[in-house]
Specification:
homodimer, mainly alpha, Farnesyl Diphosphate Synthase, two-stranded antiparallel ribbon, 16 helices, 2 strands, 75% helix, globular
Chain lengths: 324, 324
């Protein structure tokens, strides 16, 4: 039996019970809408699982878990405006279905709702939980800013990219586990090791997402392959390619990046060829594996029952196996 | 000696000490910028004053006061995007000086910063303070949504307008006082009466702002007269005029409201004439005075030293005397 998948279902049920539609509807309907678009509810499930692993009870962590999911969806809502995305999970984004003002304001209200949910934690850990949550929230904003900054920079280093995805993606997974652990009464060191586990898994996951954009099968990955290449997105693959390319390869890369009217399929094919010549796919897998190993090392230090560790290892494995 | 004005200066000094500029600069510089644009710092000053009145000490309320000011400036930042405002306090708005994405994200970070500041309150009142703060924050979002909804509605009632300005403007003043009072150890009833005082003063203040848009002197008011009329803003004056106008007056009003190319000065003059014929200026002053009286009634019930009540009465009087 898997606790994490059970907690994913519990999250889904709890979201349905939130009873979000109040007056004025223009503010609350978009909140209900984006929460109902679905998603895997991984963050709240990890939060509840961590609480359960340390205390045998997940209930004290339900509202914090929902607060994290609310915050996560708030960031998606505002990111969609900033990235001019029209579609999320196959449906129109909030700023497309309504308008930008609605998306800004409903997002703001979601952030406040998340804060309200985070108040419903055991009082003895309230300040600690909130400190972790707000520090993480601020760092997620920093990650999004770095992501936008990188669009206009030609000198992004691989280390900077890793730091950006750490902030934008990894630490919210990490904080979900840490917050659940703290509510479950974990010792500081255990909570921190779970954080490290989540952080490394988050990094591996994002690197894999970059990898799958090029090497994934659309049927499994669920997205069209090559989108990052077409958009010149400075992923690990591209940055690593720039770093390792010889003069000729750099020149070709530059041609495809700067070309204003090209056949996108040809561009994807040409850049993928340079990646393969430079074995960027292998470098990418190596780095993913490094982070996967780091996550297991951190996990092994956590004082929870072996079967719980096994579950978290399976969870990490499942994430890593998306490209098989 | 005025405590409130002293606390306004203390707020200014404390803002200068916040040390906001961190990496990435693109996220933090706009926060520093909007906070340095100035403003009267009324909300934090009222928060500290309320704390002082009940405890003889304002220091435990400093961070909460700054959190409220941070939140207030966050709402200004996002409202400026939604209202397409180019200028705030004589300087370019954040989304004009930088861009919309920066304004959205820096605003989000300000909301988080506000939450972090609100954590630094005495632990025994932390949950209560935060409940008041987040409830207020959510209601401010509701007020902004109503304000936007009203732009597209032709059937806005005066009562709805009052509710909108209550949410958008009045309750943050009210909550500032209440939060300061709670930190200062006030009894529930006293904190609630101070809230009512602030709420009524906030309503009177906003009604006066509407009034001054038409009847103020640019030299004193600091804004060009008639802007609300030109923008067809559904203020108390316009809604009251529509309610009281006869058929002919309604027809003329409708002409000026619907006209697509008109001389703005003529429009202001014509609509002001209808207002005057219907004594809307007097009705407006009466309603302001009603709220002023309500604020004094609530204030009189608060158990603080008479000289502190006198200060809050003077504060209310000063606000009300802007049109003399």
């Amino acid at each position: 039996m898997s606790f994490i998948s059970e907690f994913q279902s519990i999250t889904e049920n709890q979201i349905n019970k939130l009873n979000l539609i109040k007056t004025p509807k223009g503010l609350y309907e978009p909140i209900e809408y984006i929460l109902q678009l679905g998603g895997k509810r991984i963050r709240p499930a990890l939060c509840m699982a961590a609480c359960y692993y340390f205390s045998g009870n997940y209930e004290p962590s339900i509202e914090a878990a929902l607060g994290i999911e609310m915050f996560h969806n708030f960031t998606l809502l505002h990111d969609d405006i900033m990235d001019h995305s029209s579609i999320r999970r196959g449906k129109p984004t909030v700023h497309k279905k309504w308008n930008e003002n609605t998306a800004i304001l409903s997002g703001d209200a979601m952030m406040v709702k998340a804060c309200q949910l985070m108040l419903n934690v055991p009082s003895e850990v309230m300040k600690e939980i909130q400190s972790v949550f707000y520090q993480t929230s601020l760092e997620v904003c920093e990650g999004q800013q770095l992501d936008m900054d990188f669009e206009n920079r030609q000198d992004v280093e691989i280390e900077e990219y890793i730091e950006m995805i750490r902030l934008k993606t990894a630490i919210l997974l990490a904080a979900s586990l840490k917050i659940g652990a703290i509510i479950g009464g974990a010792k500081k060191e255990d909570a921190q090791n779970l954080y490290k586990y989540g952080e490394s898994i988050g990094l591996a996951f994002q690197l894999q997402d970059d990898y799958l954009d090029v090497y994934g099968k659309t049927s499994i990955f669920g997205k069209k392959v090559g989108q990052d290449i077409i958009a010149n997105k400075k992923t690990f693959l591209l940055l690593s390619c720039i770093k390792n390319a010889n003069k000729e390869q750099l020149k070709e890369l530059r041609y495809w990046i700067d070309a204003s009217s090209i056949n996108p399929d040809e561009k994807v094919k040409a850049i993928t060829k340079i990646y393969s010549d430079l074995k960027i796919d292998e470098k990418s897998k190596e780095l993913m594996n490094d982070y996967y190993q780091k996550s297991i090392i951190a996990l092994n230090k956590v004082n929870i029952k072996p079967e719980y560790k096994e579950e978290l290892k399976r969870f990490a494995m499942n994430l890593m196996n998306r490209f098989n």
